[in-house]
Amino acid sequence: MASKKWVTVGIVLLIGALVLSACGGTAGSAAQTTPQGLVRTVTVVGQGKASGTPDVAHINIGVETSAASAQDAVNANKVNMNALLAKIKALGIADKDIQTSNFSIYTERSQTYPTDTKAGTPDSVLYRVSNQVNLTVRDVAKLGDILDQAVSVGANSIYGVYFSVEDTTALEAQAREKAVADAKSRAETLAKLNGVTVGQVVTISEVIGSSTPVYYSAAKADGLGGVPVEAGQFEVTMSVQVTYEIK
Questions:
Q1: pTM of this prediction?
Q2: From the centroid of its chain, how far is CA 27?
Q3: Superfamily of domain 41-53+168-246
């Protein structure tokens, strides 16, 4: 019986040792394992700019007239506006590049104030009519002459002149390339400051809506003896967000 007991105890002790050994091995292994799939990264935003000479001009131009009656003001405006549109088309502006932007009628009331009282009395009512069109001028060199000729036939409301590049694809590509290079430079600088190095690109995305035109004076474009205008330069800015692996 004693021999049987010792055999049983020996078996139990052996099983216990095996369990402890298994537990100890598992714990040691877990302590040395790093999380799988974890990649250290750095994320930066790079910017790039590219500029080109404008090849399109945009302008808001029109006629304002006034009269004692609304009908008279409208009739006068109609005559001058028809003359303006005829002149604009004769200068080579296509119908597709002429778009009405505003037509309005409003009143102006003037009052007289007697010296012996602060109370004003209605004096007269004046009706004002405004008709505006947006023009797209595809030959920037003609803009000065167009402005000059427009004023000569009655245009008395001109504002909102700005220049652009009709097809910005090439400028955007240049700006995007510079933005990517800028992002890499920023990432490498950050990595160096933190004692690591930049690895492969993990993700990259273009910042939507980052293509922004900027205008600055650079070159004069006089329109064949007309009003002098400054075409300047058209600048496009692109931004990209890039995440790099760091090692």
A1: 0.62
A2: 57
A3: Protein of unknown function (DUF541), domain 1 (3.30.110.170)
